[in-house]
């Protein structure tokens, strides 16, 4: 009797080479550290869809980011810094796209085990977008980019932040927007903003790493990179990867036939897919570590609450 074919003989991918289920993972993690009420993620089954009104070579494009401007007074925000609730922001901000910016992601839950946030090109593709404008791939970069607060409150994002970003995009005569999230909640935030922009006449594409969250929220267009969180715009210190990722996002922006189009990047993080096992996985954490993380999370929440009271 012939033995059944194995994954190796058929050339199948390993079983662990599938996208991380971030909604389930974070639910299990917060239950494990002692929070009894699971977070309810934004869920839609349809999405608005705005085709590009002109070719990209004639379009004004900008970026929406969840990264925060570096502020020396706000503690450690450097590569590999622990989660820093003091660096969070709670109001939409903008920045001059003709200037250089130091944006960082210490205030959010990116994958600190498998990436270190050394290269801002992995989460803020403005230099790549400016290059494409010089080359004529897009008509122009908008005069400003916009920062979207990563509020856990979906109502605040939908009723306050998204309309504010829309107003600023309209003031700048933006034709299309690239949205770049980092943490799990960031992916939800930019998805809600993309939906609002699209419903009001501005074409969008989300480029991110949390497939389940973005698709649960039902966005018009999504470029999925199966990388650790914090690398939505490409691999660190790999300019070719970053250029390819943005170009692919623009092709999704141009070519999507209908809403809820997802395209997966062919790039792989590495040959070892073990990184997908580690992010916020309570099964890998001892009780003492879970208790330490609960205490640290409570402390950071208190810090962030203080920041919010001064900003809002």
Report on the architecture of this protein.
The protein is α/β, with parallel strands linked by helices. Residues 1-5 have low confidence and may be disordered. The strands form two sheets. Strands 1, 3, 5, 6, 7, 8, 9 and 10 form an eight-stranded mixed beta sheet that branches. The chain has a domain at 56-264. The protein has nine helices and ten strands. The radius of gyration is 19 Å and the shape is globular. This is Glycine reductase.
TL;DR?
With 312 residues, this protein is α/β, with parallel strands linked by helices. The chain contains 9 helices and 10 strands.
How is the topology of this model organized?
Layout: H1 7-10, H2 22-32, E1 60-65, E2 68-69, E3 93-96, E4 103-104, H3 126-135, E5 140-141, E6 144-147, H4 154-171, E7 176-180, H5 184-199, E8 203-208, H6 211-217, E9 221-224, H7 239-255, E10 261-264, H8 275-278, H9 287-311
Parallel strand pairs: 1-5, 1-6, 1-7, 7-8, 8-9, 9-10
Antiparallel strand pairs: 2-4, 3-6
């Amino acid at each position: 009797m012939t033995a059944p074919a194995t994954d190796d003989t058929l050339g199948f991918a390993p079983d662990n080479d599938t996208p991380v289920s971030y909604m389930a993972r974070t639910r299990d993690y917060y239950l494990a550290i002692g929070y009894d009420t699971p977070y309810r993620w934004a869920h839609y089954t349809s999405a608005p869809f705005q085709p590009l009104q002109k070719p990209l070579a004639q379009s004004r494009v900008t970026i929406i980011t969840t990264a925060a401007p570096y502020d020396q007074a706000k503690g450690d925000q450097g590569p590999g810094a622990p989660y820093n609730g003091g660096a969070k922001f709670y109001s939409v901000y903008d920045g001059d796209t003709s200037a250089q910016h130091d944006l960082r992601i210490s205030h959010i839950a990116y994958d600190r085990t498998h990436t270190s946030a050394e290269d801002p090109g992995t989460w803020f593709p403005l230099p790549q977008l400016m290059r494409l404008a010089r080359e004529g791939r897009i008509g122009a970069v908008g005069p400003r980019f916009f920062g979207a607060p990563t509020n856990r409150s979906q109502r605040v994002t939908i009723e306050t932040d998204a309309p504010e970003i829309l107003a600023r995009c309209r003031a700048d005569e933006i034709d299309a927007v690239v949205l770049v999230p980092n943490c799990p909640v960031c992916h939800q935030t930019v998805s809600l903003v993309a939906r609002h922009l699209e419903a009001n006449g501005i074409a969008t594409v989300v480029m991110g790493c949390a497939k389940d969250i973005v698709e649960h929220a039902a966005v018009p267009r999504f470029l999925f990179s199966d990388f650790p969180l914090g690398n939505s715009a490409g691999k660190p210190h790999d300019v070719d990867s970053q250029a390819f990722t943005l170009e692919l996002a623009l092709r999704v922006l141009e070519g999507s036939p209908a809403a809820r189009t997802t395209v997966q990047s062919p790039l792989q993080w590495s040959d070892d897919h073990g990184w997908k096992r580690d992010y916020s996985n309570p099964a890998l954490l001892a009780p003492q570590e879970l208790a330490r993380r609960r205490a640290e999370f409570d402390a950071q929440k208190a810090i962030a609450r203080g920041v919010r009271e001064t900003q809002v």
